[in-house]
Amino acid sequence: MPCYSIEGVIPVIDPSAYVHPTAVLIGDVIVGPDCYIGPCASLRGDFGRIVLHRGANVQDTCVVHGFPSADTVIEENGHVGHGAVLHSCVVRRDALVGMNAVVMDEAEIGQQSIVAASAFIRAGMKIPPRSLVAGVPAKVIRDLSAEEIQWKLEGTQTYHNLTQRCLAGMQEVVPLTAIEQDRPRVQAPAFEPLIATKRQ
């Protein structure tokens, strides 16, 4: 994977973490145990430190960066969806930042909170625990239900599983030129989008 030191500061990746070969890590980046870093993610620790605690995931095309002397932290089981941008902020334990959301400087996403897709979290905003946040600029919409919090946890657990699957079996290959007979499916654990669970 593209991994670069700057001024002698080298990224740290726990051996139990999975970092996709197309992700880029620069400088003061610390990836903890059981973390997942997706394709084309950019974690630039060339100004401030970036820290991922156990079981956090940063999905494809996310950008994580920060100001000098400011840490950007994703706590245990923090879940950062496709294309999100984090800058000098803190994502507390078991919180989710939705796809294409932006979390600005000195903002804090409270424990077990969910930031909706494409939300804009302004600089300095403090999100209370167990809250649903949405909008541009983002506002706290309501408290989360126990079912929604459980759904988020199960989603993060699918990324824990993906970390193990990638470490065990992902490899670069030459694509096939035709669909084979009885084509298999990947063996991902069962998990549905939140909208599907509400129909049940």
UniProtKB/TrEMBL annotation:
UniProt-listed CDD domains: LbH_paaY_like
Domain of life of the source: Bacteria
Pfam families: Hexapep
PANTHER family in the record: DYNACTIN SUBUNIT P25, GAMMA CARBONIC ANHYDRASE-LIKE 1, MITOCHONDRIAL-RELATED
Protein name stated in the entry: Phenylacetic acid degradation protein PaaY
Organism encoding this protein: Noviherbaspirillum saxi
Species classification: Bacteria, Pseudomonadati, Pseudomonadota, Betaproteobacteria, Burkholderiales
